[in-house]
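=== Structure Prediction Worksheet ===
Name of assembly: unnamed complex
Input type: mixed (protein and possibly other molecules)
Chain count: three
Listed entries:
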Amino acid sequence: MLPLSLLALCAVLLVAGAVGSAALTPEHLLGALVKSVRGEDLSTLEAIAWRIRLPRVLLAGLTGAGLSLAGVLFQGIFRNPLADPYLIGTASGAGFGAVLVFALGASFPPLAAIGAPLVAFVFALLTVLLVTGLAADLGGLPTARLILAGVVVGSVFTAATSFLLVAAREQSAGLLSRLLGGFGFASWGDVAALAAFTLPALLLAGAFARALDLFQLGERGAALLGLPVETVKVVLLGVATLVTAASVSVAGIIGFVGLMVPHSVRLVTGPAHARLLPVAVVWGAGFMVLADLLARTVIAPVEVPVGIVTALTGGPFFLWLLRRSRRGPAAGTP
Amino acid sequence: MTLRLYLAAATLALAAFASAQTVTDDLGREVTLAAPPTAVVSLLPSHTETVCALGACELLIGIDRHSDVQGTEGLPTLGDPYAPDVEAIVALEPDLVLVDEYSGLHETLADLGLTVYAGSPQTVEETYEYIGTIGTLLGRGAEAAQLVARLKSEVAEVTSVLEAVERPTVFVEIDPTPFTAGPGSYVHELLVAAGGENVVPASMGQFPQVDPEFVVAADPQVILLLDAPFGVTAADVHARPGWDGIAAVRNDTVIELSEDATDALSRAGPRLAEAVRILAELLHPDLF
Amino acid sequence: MTLEVREVTARYPARDGNGHAAALTGVTLRLEPGEVVGLIGPNGSGKSTLLRLLTRQLAPAEGRVLLAGRDIGGYGRFALARRVALVSQEPEVPTGFTVREAVAMGRAPHVGLLGSPKAEDDSVVEEAMRATGTLSFAHRRIETLSGGERQRAVFARALAQQPAFLLLDEPTNHLDLRYQVELLTYARRQASQGSGVLAVLHDLNLAARSCDRLVMLSAGRVVAQGAPAAVLDAELLSATFGTRVEALSTEDGPLIVPRFG
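=== Predicted Assembly ===
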């Protein structure tokens, strides 16, 4: 499954690199590389290929991989195939942070100087800390309390965000599209920053693949086999949160990927995380690159926010899930 | 005796009929006033500016929070053009309310018994028509015709100078996502009148969100930042990946518009000629 | 090497800090390798609490829990899991995994947190499945098994831990008679190979016939310990369980019969 998926991902990356509002060829890319090394000026298409298209495609791929990874981790820890990376408040916190910068940036120049991505990231982490703080009980992090706390804190931040949006309507240029998510001005800096979070996270999560399998015996069952349950939970939730926060701060809130991809891949590879993790990550990357490709080509050169593309695939996905679960107790996972 | 009474009544009726006005607004509604209004509420800056430009500023009893015409300073502000304080409007007992056709307010206000005109011009031609319509409604038809004639001649002054002049390619940015204004929009027509060429083709629609690659490929000579009042700077544009090769960036012709200029460019109405002149000065500084 | 509790009193933490009445009071019990000990008593008598103490899910308020003479708190998590295995009453089903994968999870205490299984681990799993007759459906998904098959798979997982002590929490509930006998036979076999087995059982007659000795709890205290014939005394049983019973003698042990009317 994995080699096939990787091959498919390569194909998707090639197509996304070539197709767009500007039709590009590998020559443009190579030409850009050569000229950059020589310090020469790039032609327009070369500039587009190297400075806009390639970072954008890579950023989409990294975001999809990261969100998908976070989804696998959340679904594994919460033992719920409907968990998604935004369960414990990452998205609502990041959204609030971004809106805060837009609303108050004019009055507080230091805030604007720090920039929306960094503030969004910080708020995402703060939100998760708040949620885990609320949910902590007798030295552990009961999953039921985590979910409840996540819902509560998420609602509060969402309401606060809405309030800011209304109160600061004049400053809301660019805000809505930021919240809807997109890879529009992806830079190599963004790619590097996200890779710095995502790649180590992939390695760490891979090491814990068997531990995640043990989680499926229930926390008590896993503890009886010697697993340090609370520690593993904190580490993996931490990793998932960091990756999610990084993605959201760079690309906005893009839904459904972290939920649909792990869930679908599990139906194909089975629940063993040694297989599930790498395949889900690859599929996540491919899916996001495709979604971004669609977003910028379906009515090119007009763009559709990529969050809308992923949301539109969400509906049919859940419909299909419903139909699967109807066919009787023998078929499929509940 | 009776005949004189009948004649007097008929004359009065005729006079009333003559001063009664019916116009059709942008939603296709028939707006009828029995007599010229004396208490007007305006819920759109374009409407406020037009009313005052027709010399009827004193008729205004309430305006929206964005209207800022000289002469309306003391008036009660009734909120946002799309979500005003309806109760306050009704309390003022206006005989005419001017709203934007996209506000959705016409039904609410009409249901409350108010006379509502819903509309706002989207192009230059529509602006001239619109001024005439408002003039008719307010009983200032003559002033309206004069205003329109003046605006047309002022615009013609500018366009005549630009007849044989080369037109720079322009990208109009109205939002940093980026959103732009295409053919069919007011800003676009002002741009054309001011001697500029929009890089956005008609096929993309009036206010499309564009792929940044498109702007780089189009390589505009000028970029107009209508989102500068929201904090977008030329430096921000220079920093966008891949945009440093664009002519406008290389030649440092990324222009941040002031809030006043942005208002003039967005409020279709009596500031039309002023807006054209502002753009012409920016695009052809050597000629104006 | 023994697993024992000495004079333990155990309580559950209460939300308001006042604590509950003790679930166990002054209980002393030893489990030796090679024997099958049955733990009986009415609901609420403290049987589950005792299991929790022995698997370190609960710490005693008083007294000590010792494994091979050392305090159980001194063992690392994996070290403890290599010595003590619990077959839960209603274990969570890891949906989607095959039986073999689910049984292989029992090797976790030997493989460790970040390690990978080796050939030796695979052969232990194979042996555990053979001993429990679960090889024939090794490839099937665990949620598709019947109750009896699933309980055997859970038992196999516990065996894969290669524990010195096997604790069974009402393993025969919801099982057909055939599987009840089967499971207790596996337990016997494990004991004969050197493990110490402690089984919490509801069925007194099964307990009498499958265990070397019985321990009867009532309201958190040990009220009897010893050979089944001695512990399963009609009067003691009637008092403990709050209903009249008769103890009949048969050649393989006492037969307990409840009295109606």
